[in-house]
């Protein structure tokens, strides 16, 4: 048998041994902790190129995958005597605790980006809130000044736009 065939056969034997041990662990009821993981294939392929980006939900999926990898690493480190092949494979998993922590800090469980994702984002969101408050105060001042005409003095928000009541020519109020 030539060396390439021998190394292929050895790689297959090693893979089969890992599969056999994994089945043995599963048969004994050992919890592998990977049942709820989303399939990463789609976003892993997409991020191979330059300039690729993940959606917040995909970052959460990546965080779960990294968390599970860390958990498996730890579990099989503790069970190295009982499962040496699996422990060796799990030991080869990288330590991504910092990346996992960054994802959890930046992406909220509901998939929204946290204000704590960056100081620039925090400033931008604070500025948006301040601008909205300023607009709302200005509109309320206009309404108070014209209170006799409109008869109503409140500002509402519809479809992310401020709405104020206006008087029709016949004296009835309508919203613009």
Give a verbal description of the structure.
- The protein is mainly alpha-helical and 176 residues long.
- The chain is 59% helix and 7% strand.
- It has seven helices and four strands.
- The strands form two sheets. A two-stranded antiparallel sheet has the order 1-2. The protein has a two-stranded antiparallel sheet with strand order 3-4.
- Strand 3 and strand 4 form a beta hairpin.
- Helix 3 (56-78) packs across helix 4 (84-91) and helix 3 runs antiparallel to helix 5 (97-106).
In short:
The protein is 59% helix and 7% strand.
How is this fold's topology laid out?
Blueprint: H1 3-27, H2 41-46, H3 56-78, H4 84-91, H5 97-106, H6 119-145, H7 147-150, E1 156-158, E2 161-163, E3 165-167, E4 173-175
Antiparallel strand pairs: 1-2, 3-4
Helix pairs in contact: 3-4, 3-5
Keywords:
two-stranded antiparallel sheet; 7 helices; 4 strands; 176 residues
What is the global morphology?
rod-shaped
SSE pattern? HHHHHHHEEEE
| Helix residue percentage | 55-70%
Biggest β-sheet: strands ordered side by side in the sheet: 1-2
Oligomeric composition of the shown chains: single chain
How much strand content do the residues show? 5-15%
Overall strand count: 4
Q: What class, by secondary structure content? A: mainly alpha
Q: Largest sheet, if any?
A: 2 strands, antiparallel
Distance between the termini: 84 Å
